[in-house]
Structure formats: C-alpha cells, structure tokens
Amino acid sequence: MLVYLSKRLLMTFLVIAVTSVIAFLLVHLSGDPAAAMAGEGASQADIETVRETYGFDRPLYVQYLDWVSRVVTGDLGRSTYLRADVTDVLARHLPVTATLGVCALGFALALSIPLGVLAALRPNTMIDRFSLWLAVAGQALPSFLFALGLMYLFGVYLRVLPISGSETWWHFIMPSVALGYYATPAIMRLTRSGMLDVMLSDHVRTARAYGLSPWRVVVRHGLRHAIIPVVSLAAVQLGFMLGGSIVIETIFSLKGIGHLAWESIQRADIEVIQAILLVIAVAYAVLTLLADLLNAALDPRIRIS
Amino acid sequence: MSPGRVALRRAIRHGGFWIGGTIIFVIVLMAIFAPLLTPYDPSVQSLSEGFVPPVWAEAGSWEHPLGTDNLGRDYFARLLYGARISLGLGLLTVIISGTIGTAMGITAGYWGGWPDMIINFFITVRLTLPVVLVALVVVALIGSSLWLLILVIGLLLWDRFAIVVRSATQQLAQREYITSARAIGSSTPRILFREILPNITGPLVVVTSIEIAHAILLEAALSFLGLGVQPPDVSWGLMVAEAKAQLLFRPWMIAIPGAALVLLIFAINLVGDALRDVTTPEGKA
Amino acid sequence: MLLSRTILASGILAITAASAQAGKENDTFVWSTSTEMDTADIYYGNQREALINAYAMCDGLLHRDPITNEFQALLATSWEWTDDTTLELELREGVKFHDGTDFDAEDVAYTLNHVADPDSDMKIRVLVDWIDNVEAVDTYKVRINAKRPTPAALQYLTGTSPIYPSGHYADAPVVPGADGAERRDWGAVQPVCTGPYKLAEYVAGESLTLEANPDYFEDSPKGKPSIGTLVYKTIKDPETQIAEVVTGGVDWIWGVPPENAEMLSSMGNLTVVSAPTMRMSFLSLDAAGRTGDTPMTDLKVRQAIAHAINREAIAENLVGDGAEVQKSMCAPVQFGCETDVKQYPYDPEKAKALLAEAGYPDGFSVPFHAYRDRAYSEAVLNDLRAVGIETDLQFLQWRALRPKIVDDEVQIGHLTFGSNGILDVSASTSYYFTGGPDDYARDEEVKAWLEEADRTTDQEERKALYSKALNKIANQAYYIPLFMYGRTYAFNKDLDYPVTPDEMAHFYLAKWK
Fold first, then answer.
1. pTM across the whole model
2. Does pLDDT of A138 surpass 80?
3. Pfam families from the entry (chain B) (predicted)?
4. Which listed CATH number (1.10.3720.10, 3.30.300.180, 1.20.1440.230, 2.60.40.10) goes with B3-279?
C-alpha cells in the first residue's frame, strides 16, 4: 500500500508541476502583461515603468520560478483590478463554488443512485428503459439552456426561487440542479451495472436462496460493493464541476471562482487567472488522488496490479 | 461474416439508430441545401424589421417564418446556416482530436512500457486542466477566428479517444494472432494498419460520436460566453447567446436554436448508443 | 490556510440567511448595473457607477444642479477669480467628515495637491492637470493657482472632485513590484467624505453599500438624505437584471433594451422612462497611420466609411428613445460644441464609389475593436460589409482594449465617451485631438486650435476656435460621430426620483412615495 501511495503522490506532484507551467505560459505568452497591468491612461513610458517594476522584461523561466517560489509560500500574487491579494479574493470566491459543487454532486447522487438501483432490480423493463432514455435525453441538453429554462420557470414565472446571488440555501437550488444533472447518466449507468454484477454474484444469490427479501439483500450487501466505483466517479465529477461551473455561475450571478476566472480573463488580470487555473488543477488532482486511494483501500486488486 | 457486417446488420434492426440517424440526416440536408431553402442571407441586417415574431404569433407572417432577430436578420436563415457551422465544426474538431487521440492510444496500448507511461502522464495532465477555462484564456488572449476555435477545441478534446483506443489496443495486442504475426516477422506498421486499426473501429466509432456532441456543446458554451463563433458567422450556440437577453419577453428566440441543439445532440447520442450496443452486445445487460 | 478558510466560509454561508431585501418596506434601495466597480475612489477609476456613488457619499467644492445646470455652493460658499490664473474660494464652516473630523482649508489643499501631482497615478488627468498648487490661506479660505487660464475650472471642481480629509492617503497599501521596487495603491483606500450618505461597505467587483448620514449639514443644495440605505450590486447578465427588477429583487436598472421597454412598463410594478445622455458613440479611425500604412490614412476611405453607416436606423431602432444621431465630435449640450459641420448622409453607393476612387473597388479587410453594446457594433459591421469592407471583430473589455489603443494597435475602434459629465468641449474634443495616446488623427492645426481654446477666457473666442477645429475634424472625417446614447431606466414604482439627462443617477435626491 505504501508503495502505491508514494507512486501516486509522485504522479500527482508531477502533474501539478506541469499544469503550473502550462497555466503560466498560457497567460504570459498572450498580449503584453505590462500594458494590461498599466491599464487606463497609461502612456508608453508608464507601460515601460510597469514592465521594469514588475520584472516582465526578465526571461520567462525566471519569472516562472519567481511565481512558483511565491506560490509555495502562500503568496498567490495581487489582483490589479480588485486591488487585493489574490489569496483573499480566492478565499471569498472559493466557498461559493465549493458549495455549488457539493450541492450539485449531492443532487446528482440523490437522483442517479436510486434510479440506478431501481433499473438494476428491474432490468429491461419500462423503468429501466425509461431511466436510460432520461439519461440520454438529459445529456443532450446543454447546461446553459437548462439553467435558463429553470430560471425562467421557477424564478420568473412561478416566482418560487430566487434568481441571482448566493445569499441563502434557496439560491443554490437551481444552479445545483443545472450543474449536477449532467453527471447523472454516468453515475446512474455505473450504479446500475455495478448492482447487476453484484446481484449475479454468488453470495447474493445464496442470500436470496435463503429467503431474504431482495430489497434487504440488494441494498445492504449489493450497494456496499457497487458503491465503490461510484464514489470514485463522483470525486472525478466533482473535479469537473469545479472547473466547469463558469457558465452556471455567470447565469445565476454566483460569485464563485469560475465567474471570477471569466471576469479576470476579460480584464486581463493575469495573476488571478494563473492562480485560478492552478487552484482548480490542484483541486482536481487531489480529488482524483483521494478517489484512487479510496479505491485501492477498498479493493485490494488495484494495489497489486 | 466479418464483424463489420454483423454490426451493420444489428444496427439496421436497432430503433435508436434509425431515429437518431434520420434526424442527423435531415439536419445535414438542411445545412447543405440552405441557400435553396431560404432566400435570405443570414447576416444581412434590416434594422427597422427587428424582432418580428414567428409565423404562428399574431404579428408574424410567412415572410419570416421563424421571425427575425434584434438586427432584423431572418431567423430561419440563421438556423440553416448555423447548422453548417455547428456541424462542420463538430466534424473538423473531431478529425483533429481523433487523430491525435488515436495515435496516442495506439502507441500506448501497443508498445506499453515507457511510451505508455508518458502518454498516460499526458492524459492525466490534460484531464487536470479545466477545458472551458483554458479555451477561454487562449481565445480571449489570441483572438477568436473560426479556424483558431476549431484548432483549440481539437487540441483539447483528444483525451477520451486516447483512453478508449489505448484500452482497446491493449486488449488486442495480447491476442494470439498478433503475437503470431510478430513471430512471423510482420513489420510493425503492417500489424498496426491491418490488424489493430480495423479491429478497434467499434469503440472508435462510439467515441467519435460522443466527442462530436462534446465539441458542439463546447462551442455552444464558448459562443454563449461571447468567445466562440463571431459575427458575421453564425452558429446555434451564438444564436442562443444573442437571444439570452430576450428570455423573458420573447422566449421563442432562445427556444428555437436551443431545441435545434438539443435535437442534434440527442440524435448523435442515440446513434452513439446504438453503435455501442451493436459493437459490444455483451455490454447491454 | 486557504482550505480552512474555505471550509469555514462555506459553513457561515450556509447558516446566514441575511440578504439585502430590496424595497420600500426595508427602506433599502438596491440598484444594479453590469459593471464591476474596481474602486470606490472616483479619482482612481472613471466608471460611471463610481461617479454615481461619489455624488451620493462625497461633496466637492461646487455642486452643479442636475436639472438647471447652475453652479451652487457646496463645500465652497463663494468663489472668485482674482486674476487669470488664481481662484479664491471661501469655505463652509461646521461641516464634518464621516469619521468625525472637521472640514477646513487644509483638507482641500491636501486632496487637490495630492491628485494634481503628476505622480499621483490619478486616472482622469484633465480634471486636475490645470492645477499648479493649492494653498490654505486661512482656516476657511483656499487659493487655487492654475498653470494657465482654465475657463472650465469650475466644471472640474464639482462632484467629480470630492474632498477628503488631510492625510487620507497616508495608509495606502504598498504594492510590491519585482526586485524590491514599490508602488502605492492609492485607489485601494476607502473614501472618507462629507456627503449625505456614508460608505458602509465596499466589496470590489461586487457591491457598495451606503447609509444615510443623519449629521449631514443643513443648507446643502443636495438636501437631506431620505432613503435609509442605498445598495449597489453588480449583476452581469442583462436578462438577470430584468428578471430581478420584475420580481422586486432589485429596485433600479438602466440600459433596458428599447424592445423590452414597452413590455416592462406593462408589468405594473415598474416605472419605465427614457432620457437622453451626454454619451457619444463614435468610430476612431487611424488617420495618422499609427498602426502602419493602412487604408484608414486615405481621406476618401474615411469618408466612404462615414457614408456607409446608417446612423438614423441604428439610433432609432437599436438604441431607442432618447437617442439621436451625433452630428459632430462633441456632445451638443457642451459649451463650444459646433454642430453645423459637414454631414455624411447614409449612401452606400457613394461609399462604394469613394472606395473605388481610393483604389479599393473590391473593398478590403480590417480589424475592428469594440468593447461595449455589442449589438450596435454588429450593426455597424454589417453596414460596412454591405459596401465591401470586411471586418474582423475584436470584442474586448475596456481594460484589455485601452492598452491596445495606447500601443498603436487599433485601426478602427468603436468607442464611447461620457466626458465625465463635464459640460465643456475641453472635456471631450480636446481629450481626443490634442496629441495624447487616444489621438489617432494627430493633426497639428487642430491641436493648436483646441489647446488655445482650452486656455482662453474669452467665451466668443473659444467658440470660434472650437468651431474651426470641429469643422476640420468633420471635413477630414478623422473620427466618425455615430449617435448620442439614450438610456432607458426601469425602477420601482414606489420610487420618487428625478430622471436626468446627464446619465447620472442622483439617488441622494430620491424618496419613497
């Protein structure tokens, strides 16, 4: 187990390192960071001053190492637009996205696991076909269309849910549904196939032969085993949601990091863009690491292969 | 019968294949014959004729069967010509991403060892980067021409190709007929092209369909944010973005391109699912 | 550290249900636009939203009545030009800043000297560049020494130049540069002012909350504040804004598209009103060849572009009520704005003929930069396409576009300018044609006329000089004036509030009905 752990940690570290280089290069090889930072009313001389002050005239690898050395000490730079340290800005925006991601995942799990179990219990029946069709149809709907539709129906027409902002739990309902439903088909399919496998396994069949009701057997024994790959998939999906929340956040005016990233891109607020790309990548890498470790802990076969 | 013909026969009997296939076929026809189906140029404006509602509304008429947008451009024309870009973009990006991903997948799956580890590393790095944000950064900072968009999306969406092709290749590479082909001295390119490639077409075709849908959706999202297709070009994603401001008062403006997008993706998914069922019959249970 | 703060903040977020409830019952007025405020200090940002908030929470020396346009005494009770370049002002006694300190001449001298300093990094130099230095002559008397005669000086001393207490900027954060170099971020200091509202909370990019100041001095031309709390919220998406104002989540928005105005007013809980503004929409053309030797340097090409655009159709159909075609490169309400200049009527055939004469019978291709109101830019683009000019639209945010303008990269720019509400041509035409980084015409003759007009005190002479400059600009089609913006406002029916033609929102004058 230890060997596995150290291999995975090394891999994660390498991935993060390479991602940081890519994030840095993406941002610095475009346009002119000095001109962007100098901003309004700046003359050529002003821009040159900024270039020297901030060291944009140094070779790229030097700037990169400078940035990395600051990052590992916790200094993510400063946002020129918001006039605040990036760390503080992120600390304000990250909770919104984290809450959104967790709620969206919760919604997806709450919807897809029961459906998956039900479909597995009654394979090839109406329920099974229906849930599969629902899944396929759901995936065809782009998230922004779904979000706009929800906003119109529940926010404006029925007036039961708030339209924008992130002040209360109610504000997160529509965004979570809009963001989470996309993960539903994958989780549902995985649950279903996992449950089917389990139900055909020896010890479940034996339990049923003893007369135990299918429900108890399935739910107590089957689900426990089928859930393992689902947890791992869920962690990965959470990672995707963190990186893909930008459209939902824009529509519902949620001030999360996706929204912040988009704004910063438009404003050429370089330090923020770099930091967000890095943070999202790190979050995703950590989540997948946890998912893999969980899998390895629960399923010894993985460790050995 | 060759596996290809078996699959084809199964496909013909599969309901989803027909429904999805027909829808796609109709959309493709509409895109190709757009100039014949509408007299209007989708980007010529007529400012005094803005916001004409579709023919089924009170103020609508057959002159503009689906109405006009804010600049007076005929909506039906925009829908038809938009199909060209949405479809064309989906196809072209998939050619790029498919080529990259398949090449990487075959390399990793066939040779294993170091090439496999390196390619796995690339895949992991690619998965770790948030696709939408990276695309936004590149397009925002370099500029948004249609070709750049295709290139960027193509260069970002190769991961699933690589993963699926790799695993399919791995399974094949261990089969006896491959090892015996090697034993008799067949050259590597020969093995790759004659034995491996034809036998992974099953999963490859399935992934292709998924990724076409993925590319179209990604373009729609980028256009929605304003950094995808630019005027005078028109795509369905851009139409939704432009109609967003009219959500409350003229919902038909979003509903029409939105429904078109959903229908297209749905059809692609149906066909993809049908192909998956057909090429791996054991997986259906 | 980041992780634990995230977890803690998520928890708090989950528990608190407090939100700014809008409306009369809570005596909280919520207004919203799409802009993100990057600073609350109007000296360090020139967003309209910052100016609106500055008028509510800060006072300048003079106040210009929004309806009559007359100057009134605010922090200064009287003023006099003792000679061409010296302005003496008597100040009001008994005024307190929001932090409790007393207002006097030292504060005026400190504030104006700080921002007038060329190193102050202040954003709108035209407001303070005329000042040489300011002296506190007595406790309530101040003398402003101008570098040269500045007829528009009184305009500059209104709400766009708030007064802060002495030492206000002393705590500006030090911003680290590379290799040990340092800068001060003056714009990060929260303003402390004397106005009818106090700054309660400012969250950069998101919101700004003001509370009524019960100790605001009597006899102010701004009156006493009526509404208890004013909250500004950024909502990026226009349709979300509309949805919010319809459902009562927000009390005031502007920028309602004309096609929605009628439907909004039929909703019953809203007042929908249009008003003209001072904001110009125009095309800057690279006549001087700053980007290189492009077709824009040819007079015929520029005139062709002018004839190609259907300005009436855009103003009437797209911009809506309150908008009108702009005749000259200045706002008609500004002093010195000569509108009787060469006009280029919509004539695509003539445009094509001119292009052919210039050597482009098949048109040409050109990058087109814009930053706001995309639909208007698209309409212009489509008109250009119709005469053969293919454009490559680069739609950016202003902060990303400005560096390109400075860096000689913009051949055609679709720009707007509100002149900061200053009713004098020196704040608009002179901004664009006196050789600064925004000047893509670089005409020495025009520059000379404008600079002289900016400095002369004789009104008739000024008008004549501005007229000469504006005529030449029109004859040379250096820039193409398109239209004057109109704005449509939608607000809570319970709000009693004067809609003014200056594109400002004077919320300190608003009351609930």
1. 0.80
2. no
3. BPD_transp_1 (PF00528), OppC_N (PF12911)
4. 1.10.3720.10
